[in-house]
């Protein structure tokens, strides 16, 4: 006869906990685990289930900043730098949150003369991912954007990464993506562009600026556009797009040191004529090429074409030039205003006087020996 067994009452039933899985472990522990996963593993993990996709979101977004690192200005939490650093660890959640809340975003890049191949392009692809990942209603509320600023480091680690998860390019010109990338510029008042040192990056940057940023930056007040040594290609489309925006943004400051390309330089007068009545601060290279400036009829800074620009843009106050060989033939290089942007100071070597940019702008530190008021 089998032994008698007692039936279990409700009070005797013990609840058996389900085994720990990635779906139900504490979020803090899950984040610690993701720190040891590379981008491929994170991508696979976020496709396992909806719960894991939600849990993985923060780590995934932080990983997509690579090969850039996020640096928060210690004196201004609203100013954020993203810098090339292929060997930096994954961005922290707090850093990415600061990026989402940034008022001023500065994309730094490789100096023109020592650049790892492909890194300027990867920087722009990374910026595209950041913009794509922060869509409406989480769009960035940027007030100032600087593209390809130079960091004081002389060289960067070589980045030879070819990550198949990330695209080789960002098609800013496609209508669907263009709408997504255009959602971040309603509050933008300052746009500073340093033309990158590689042609493919310059083409991508042109599409981003002309198709996604300028048409939607209706509050833009400060636009600066700089070439640098070794920059490849020209970006006349940017200046033409700015000149023919409708409606015009309330532009107050315009600077451009575009050179060597006649097409780009011929667009400078068009911009000055379009915004001349609202501009308060202007500095541009003389829009007529140097070979003309050597001819006698063009050697005077009060030539009728300069006076026409002065009439269209009253903020222009002076033309600056230099006598390169001491023969009295002044090459008039820069049109500028107001007059207070430059002042005469003695040189350190021989004490001779020269005109110096008072705000320390690195793009306008040329030596000028002559100033002619307009």
Q: Average the pLDDT over all residues and give the rounded result.
A: 77
- Label the overall shape: elongated
The gyration radius over C-alpha positions equals: 28 Å
Low-confidence stretches: 112-116, 156-166, 290-298
Total number of β-strand segments?
A: 13
SSE series: HHHEEHEHEHEHEHEHEHHEEEEE
- Beta-strand percentage range: 15-25%
Q: How much helix is in the residues?
A: 25-40%
By secondary-structure content and strand pairing, the structural class works out as: alpha/beta
Spatial order of the strands in the main sheet? 1-2-3-4-5-6-7-8-10-9-13
Describe the sheet with the most strands: 11 strands, mixed
Structure annotation, total helices: 11
Protein name: F-box domain-containing protein
Describe this protein's structure:
The structure is a single chain. With 374 residues, the chain is an alpha/beta fold. Helix content is 29%, strand content 18%. The protein contains eleven helices and 13 strands. It has helices spanning 27-34, 39-45, 50-63, 93-100, 119-133, 175-181, 199-213, 236-243, 262-275, 290-293, 304-312; strands at residues 68-72, 79-84, 104-109, 144-150, 190-194, 222-226, 253-256, 281-285, 318-322, 331-337, 342-346, 353-357, 370-373. The strands form two sheets. Strands 1-2-3-4-5-6-7-8-10-9-13 form an eleven-stranded mixed beta sheet. A two-stranded antiparallel ribbon has the order 11-12. The chain is elongated. The protein starts with 26 loop residues before the first helix and ends with a strand. The model is unreliable at 112-116, 156-166 and 290-298 (pLDDT under 50).
């Amino acid at each position: 006869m089998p032994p008698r067994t007692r039936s279990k009452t409700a009070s005797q039933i013990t609840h058996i906990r389900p085994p720990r899985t990635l779906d139900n472990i504490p979020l803090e522990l899950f984040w610690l685990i993701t720190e040891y996963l590379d981008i491929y593993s994170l991508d696979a993990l976020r496709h396992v289930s909806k719960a894991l996709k939600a849990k993985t979101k923060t780590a995934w977004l932080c990983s997509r900043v690579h090969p850039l690192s996020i640096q928060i200005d210690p004196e201004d939490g609203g100013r954020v730098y993203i810098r090339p650093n292929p060997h930096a660890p994954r961005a922290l959640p707090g850093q990415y949150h600061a990026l989402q809340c940034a008022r001023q975003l500065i994309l730094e890049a490789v100096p023109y003369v020592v650049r790892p191949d492909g890194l300027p392009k990867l920087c722009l692809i990374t910026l595209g991912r950041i913009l794509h990942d922060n869509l409406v209603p989480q769009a960035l509320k940027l007030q100032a954007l600087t593209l390809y600023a130079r960091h004081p480091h002389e060289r960067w680690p070589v980045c030879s990464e070819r990550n198949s998860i990330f695209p080789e390019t960002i098609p800013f010109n496609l209508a669907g993506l263009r709408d997504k990338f255009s959602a971040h510029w309603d509050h933008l008042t300052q746009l500073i562009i340093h033309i990158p040192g590689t042609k493919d990056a310059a083409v991508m940057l042109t599409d981003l600026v002309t198709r996604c940023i300028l048409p939607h930056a209706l509050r833009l007040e400060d636009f600066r556009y700089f070439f640098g040594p070794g920059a490849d290609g020209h970006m006349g489309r940017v200046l033409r797009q700015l000149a023919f925006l409708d409606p015009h943004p309330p532009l107050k400051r315009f600077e451009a040191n575009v050179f060597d390309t006649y097409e780009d330089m011929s667009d400078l007068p068009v911009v000055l004529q379009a915004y001349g009545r609202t501009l308060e601060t202007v500095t541009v290279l003389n829009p007529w090429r140097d070979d003309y400036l050597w001819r006698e009829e063009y050697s005077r800074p009060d030539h009728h074409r300069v006076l026409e620009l002065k009439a269209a843009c009253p903020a222009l106050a002076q033309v600056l030039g230099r006598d390169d060989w001491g023969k009295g033939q002044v090459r008039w290089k820069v049109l500028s205003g107001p007059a207070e942007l430059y002042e005469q100071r003695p040189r350190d070597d021989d004490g001779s006087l020269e005109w110096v940019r008072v705000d320390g702008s690195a793009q306008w530190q040329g030596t000028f020996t002559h100033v002619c008021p307009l």
